[in-house]
Amino acid sequence: MGLFDFLKKEEEKPEKADKLTVDDDGIDEEELDDAVELEDDEDMDAKSAPDDRETRGPFDISEASPAKRYVDLGALRIPAREGLGLRLEVEEKTKRLVAVALDYKESTMQIQAFAAPRSTGLWHSIMAQLAEQVRKQGGTAEEVEGILGPVLDTKIPVVIKGAASNQTRSARFFGVDGPRWFLRGVLTGKALRDEATRVELVELFRSVVVVRGDAPLPPRELLTLVVPKAMADPTSKTATEDAASGEAEQA
Question: pTM for the complete prediction?
Answer without folding.
Answer: 0.79
